[in-house]
Amino acid sequence: MRFEGIARNCNTRxxxxxxxxxxxxxxxxxxxxSSRIPSPEFAEIKLGxxxxxxxxxxxxxxCKLCIPxxxxxxxxxxxxxxxxxxxxxxxxxxxxxVVSAKGGYRKxxxxxxxxxxxxxxxxxNFVEAVVRIRERIDYSLLYAPGIANPVNLxxxxxxxxxxxDSVDVVMKSRKGIYFTPEGxxxxxxxxxxxxxxxxxxxxxxxxxDLLTHNYNVFQNELIKVRNAIRHGTLxxxxxARSHFDANFATIIRLFDTLHYEFxxxxxxxxxxxxxxxxxxxxxxxIVRFRKxxxxxxxxxxxxxxxxxxxxxxxxxxxxxxxxxxxxxxxANVPNRHVIHEVIVTSPLGIVPRELExxxxxxxxxxxxxxxxxxxxxxxxxxxxxxxxxxxxYDAIISHLPSDISSTLEIDAVTTCVDHPxxxxxxxxxxxxxxxxxxxxxxxxxxKRHENTLSMxxxxxxxxxxxxxxxxxxxxxxFPEYSIYHEEKQMASFSKSRxxxxxxxxxxxxxxxxxxxxxxxxxxxxSVFAVGVEDACNVxxxxxxxxxxxxxxxxxxxxxxxxxxxxxxxxxxxAVKIRHYR
Amino acid sequence: MKELQDFVxxxxxxxxxxxxxxxxWKEKDLLDGRIVxxxxxxxxxxxxRWAHHSGxxxxxxxxxxxxxxxxxxxxxxxxxxxxxxxxxxxxxFTSGSFLDEREIPIRIQKYILRKFEAAEKIIIExxxxxxxxxxxxxxERLEVAMGLESANNKVLEYSINxxxxxxxxxxxxxxxxxxxxxxxxxxxIKPPFMTEKDAxxxxxxxxxxxxxxxxxxxxxxxxxxxxxxxxxxxxxxxxRPPWLWSxxxxxxxxxxxxxxxxxxxxxAGGKARGAHNCGQCDREFLTAIREFSLSQDYGLFKKLDCSxxxxxxxxxxxxEFLRG
Lengths: 581, 324
Fold this sequence. Notes:
heterodimer; A: 581 residues; alpha/beta; TIM Barrel; Rossmann fold; Archaeosine Trna-guanine Transglycosylase, Chain: A, domain 4; 3 domains; five-stranded mixed sheet; globular; B: alpha/beta; 12 helices
């Protein structure tokens, strides 16, 4: 068996698994087949044929490529019983292992989730167990037997389960259950069938037809999940499905509220689009943004006046009509560079202007009504208060409409009269902004330099950013800043990636930050996980990284895996090299 | 296994002993090939000694006990004698072992057997560790019923928590036979933590191992007794009592390898707490099993059929992939 991850999204990945000369995509389904039960035409790896059951603990069976026999006590049993079970099971575990969330364990290449069927009915236990098991098996494969169907497939994949089977679908088909992506119905109770698969067109007359339809819809959902991983939209898919089963919603909420760290290290730092929903407030990549703004980011030192602006539907904000109006007003204000524009929004909280191109600030879409949920208001209020505690300003101007400004506990001069873009509001903004004149002059070059420093702090952390920018100058127009040192380019801002990308000399100047240590070879196109000796654990999928062998920089590039995964995995691209020596 | 013993004890909680009246009824049974009236007496004693320590995962009889002294047991026997009408076959059970002197002192055991002087055959039950007390009774009318449940030591230890090994049980069974008494063996259908397929296999393999020592085999499909480990599992959807299809399959397979009498009393049959099928065919199955126990006519099973057979076959095939 060989496994290689190709794309990552949320807590999971898309990859290629090779078993006995056959190659399948992961997430994938093992299709059950026997003389009584046909598998679908598109079945690749067959359960019961390619992968067999190695009997049970009481009656084990020796065979090749088998799910090992194991004594599995219920999840709710005390730890001691799970330990005893592990003692008798251990000798059966090899390449394929059965891993419980409790008691002892041994990690295999493919790991069968113990108690899956029991756990799926209790979201709290399910989340605790799947996180525990995933931590036990690192990045190796996880198979949850007997629970997947077209409805729960997205949430199971989201939870990090790689491999499913068709057992539940076969058993439910026997009971006359017709699956749709959103739920199950008794086939005889359906007035119309919302499907145009071969079986449904022909007409469902019996078990075989129903099974064919259910297989088709199961396969479709699998492909949807894989596409969602490829395109970074798995979160949208599971959030949408959460409306069809309260347990799914519970699973998302428990992951978000109890397992931020587990999720954060798996969530990529780049993406295409984020459709914000009420769940997004706790979405790990959104929470990470808020945390980084409070923990890593520091405002430009020369900025003395905080100007709070409302967000715009268009991203980045600067391109919107309203923000162009704001900026044209500010353009008339003398010494305008002491004014720091910070956008107030949900679910990100606050977005300093320099970060408007960063993921997910430039990528989120949210329905804007002017009606705020209490939770959003609380989050924004909390964030703003933390922010002004960390970043001292001499004055605060709020150009926020009253629907939000009235709920925030912050001392500010209000300039928004009715609507932020009304001429009255804009005039007031211009008038109040003129206090900028009272401050020490800040020229464009200084502001650009400090903007860059703030952006670098967000990306690499404070100390690395300060050192990196020393003796550098910044050229270009926001946001396309380029950083030069002794006339050599060190880095430039990439709008598409929402971060600074390094040149080879820039990698040297950054030094050992966001570093990957490789064996002694010169990478050109890619660094594969097998060549990675060690990696900095702050690295996330999509990060800009430096690649080293000892003290020698070997390249700079884009992380395709998180730092932890680079160390664990033996196959797959770890870093896409952009520049090498 | 100590851990399972501890957990069974913990799950059961305190044994509340309050039932003092003996249970008495009469039923048809098989005696040397004839259908006769039998007299059944269940004495309330202190109960099974193993249950006091821990107990079997499926057994809830520990609740039907109280600390009856000699006098109380004798009073219960008096009550029984008022209803006894000289039935040829008498069954005297306790919720434990009749032969355990802590439950019924030897003197009283002898007294009870003497009271049923008219009986041709008396069936008593015992765990193997008390079989040695048979030497003190010297009664040739006795048939000893011994619960084996499974002849697989892994099942006895990790599933049933039976508290003895097959080898220990066999010693007791052989002693019964050496004394020239007949032996009835209880075999459990579907202990917990097992698949339906395993359960059938386990039962049949158990029959194979005891077919030469047993005179009668009585299959007991698991029923969910209150406060037992199987009830804990059943409430959490982690245990389903056996399908009646499995019960019939076991009886049929046993018939092919065992020459003695095969019986099966399906407790709570057709109900969620007992062996059941889909609900449509349960009554038919239960009637066939009941009639078979008296007639030993395997032909009774031939006509049984129902669409739920496919569901049962799915379970047999695929359950081992569900992994607990």
